[in-house]
């Protein structure tokens, strides 16, 4: 069905897909399992053509002024006739093994000012001698055109690499079985949670929830498409330092907690015994502790491991036992700790983030999570549905 949203939101997501057959040069790097977690949201009004900028310009103030104008135009909705897909033509999408360098000028002699990761996007500004000038996140610079696509090619690729999301803007959103206020309620979703959109109809969108596919009114959600964006050298340095500091703080908190009191078990004994496994001693300890509560109830908005909790309350309370503070929000959990490149690199204790849901990885391709009111806290296969992000706390 036709999409009616007028906005493209460009922000960081922890998702990297390998692109086979691309030769690596000085401006295209090999893959790794650690991804950036920072980013700035940028909204494009549909129909604005950044191709119209003067070719070869390197005037940062001019670029910022134009982007600000685009933002104002979007807020005033002055171009309702254009579609979101038309705005995708303004994207430059990287197609490399890991990232392509963003340089200060259209030459390999230019200073590296940032990285545009595989399947991530920038906004097209101009083209010069086989280089695209782009703006992405806080980075403005040049990338080799041979490692990117734009225009009509970007339109189709953007649908594959972007994630269409509905962000809840009401306190408690009712998800219904059909696109009608008369339909029965499938489940409830809290404020600011992000749900993956699978279909759109007049005034309604179909979203992926833990209870299954359901429908929500567009009156109570904000629709946008998320992409990975560039990371500047300064942002990368700050991110790595922050992630190191957070890991050290989390380990220190866990050690202090362990020294202050012995770990207690007050959960119901599961009918089946599960064992966590992994290379991270601390992460395995987190997973082992979480497994004690399998069989206990799910309660929307709850955070009690024994009397009832929802998904984010579950991971929050489990990590609280180790002295680590996490938010009571599955959406916010997507930015906690450090990004991990997919389930293949997950370790016990990692947060596995889904559409409107979060779980704890226990190893061997499995998770423990507060699933639904019907199932309570259970163990499932980690790939039971699409993973949006994997985050490492320790």
Automatic annotation (TrEMBL):
- In residue numbers, the region (Disordered) covers 232-275
What residue spans carry the Basic and acidic residues bias annotation? 232-251
In what ranges is there compositional bias, type Low complexity? Answer: 252-269
Which N-terminal stretch is annotated as signal sequence?
A: 1-28
The record's keywords, sorted A to Z, are:
Hydrolase, Protease, Signal, Thiol protease
Sorted alphabetically, which Pfam families does this protein's record hold?
NLPC_P60, SH3_3
Q: Name one GO biological process term.
A: proteolysis
List each copy of the NlpC/P60 domain by range. 280-394
Stored SUPFAM superfamilies: Cysteine proteinases
Single GO MF annotation: cysteine-type peptidase activity
Instruction: Give the family this protein belongs to, as stated in its UniProt record.
Output: Belongs to the peptidase C40 family.
This chain's protein is named C40 family peptidase
Q: Upper taxonomic classification of the species?
A: Bacteria, Bacillati, Bacillota, Clostridia, Lachnospirales
